[in-house]
Structures are given as structure tokens and as C-alpha cells.
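Troubleshooting log. The previous structure file for this entry was overwritten by mistake, so regenerating from the original sequence record. Sequence copied from the archived sheet and checked twice against the printout by T.R.
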Amino acid sequence: MPQEINIYCDESCHLEHDHQPVMLFGAVWCPKSEVINISSSIRDLKKKFNARGELKWIKVSPSRIKFYLEIIDYFFSNKSLNFRALVVEDKSKLDHSYFNQGSHDSFFYKMYFQLLRNIINDQQKYSIYLDMKDTRSQKKIDTLKGILCRNFHDFDLDLIERIQHVRSHESEILQITDFLLGAVSYRNRKLASNKAKLEVIKKICENAGTELNKTTPPWEEKFNIFVFSPRGSTCE
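Regenerated output below.
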């Protein structure tokens, strides 16, 4: 019987005209059988450090630095948890009229597929959860479902059982995705004003054995990064 896997996805700086230089997609995945234990462990860490509310990158500050560093230790020590990020460098070079039928949305879904294709295999079954951000969330899910079904020839939903949105406060594992993707985003946007965030990034790099702005080997599962460099409509 195939193992059931849950994938928790998020994106950052994904809007076409948000004046951010990069665009990022991230996912944390684990066996469905481990979701309750992992969620409970994260809640226990929150209680230990009196860290109320959601685990979010935007909240990282010196006053809770021990909590964030212990979250990193927990992620890397838990063999059930894995992370993958896709980084799109220099959005200004994207030429949607040449490559994406004139549509930023088309490119957005291509990148989501690229994120997930290295995670999904035909020996397991998957449930995919996306962070609900706006009123377009349902359209995003319907479109992504169609793309995945066509590319994986999964028209009977034997491989991907469900794709649905979830609010981040309802899922500790989705919060881990936000946290790790935020670190990758901060590094790739070349920000350096928050010392606590820099300490967190240093800790992640030490555990992952890699920088957060470089492509890792494709077989790396624990902390995988792929950096995509747009080349415009003509080769440079």
C-alpha cells in the first residue's frame, strides 16, 4: 500500500509588480502519519518559549531567538520533515510575452509545477495544502490541480488525492514552510538589517551544509534549493 504524504506549500514575492527582485516557492512535506506528532512538537516548543501565535518569518526578533534556533534544530533532527524551495532570480528579466503566452499567471503555475515535480513520485499518494492568501485561492487550486493531473497523467486522482487551501494558523507544518521560505527569501533579497534573522540564516546554512542562494544537488531531499535564472527573450 503506497505511503500517504502531505505537502504544505507557500510562495513569497510572487506578485508581478511588487517591486521585489526575486520570486520564491516553497514546500515542506512529511508522511501523513507523522502530522499529529510534528504539530504537537511544534506547539510544545511554542509553550516552552512562550511564543504565542503563529511561527512566521516576519516575526523573527532577538527576544525569541532561542525559540527560532530550536525550531531549526527540530526540523533538521526530524527525519520525517523535508523542505524544497524554488527561487526565481531577477524578475525584471521575465519575458512573459515570449515564454508564457503573455501571462504572469502562466509562469506562476509553471514554477509551482517545477517545485512539486521533484517531490512527487508514483510510489506514494499525496495531499497538497496551499496557504490561503486572497480571494483567488480557489482559482489557484483549481488551475494547479488541472496542471498536475495532466502532467502526472493522474486523471483518476490516484496519485494526488487532494489539493486544498488552509489558513496558516491552522497548520504548524505550513508555518514551518513560511519560516524556512522566509529565510531563503531574506538571503536572496540580500537583506541584512535584522541581526536575529541573520543568526537564523547562519544556523540553517550550518545544518544544511549549503548557502541559501545556490542550487543544491537534485538528490538532496532534506533541504533542497533550485535557483532559476530568467534569460529574457534572447540569449545574453
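The CA atoms of residues 77 and 195 lie 24 Å apart. Archived copy saved in two places this time.
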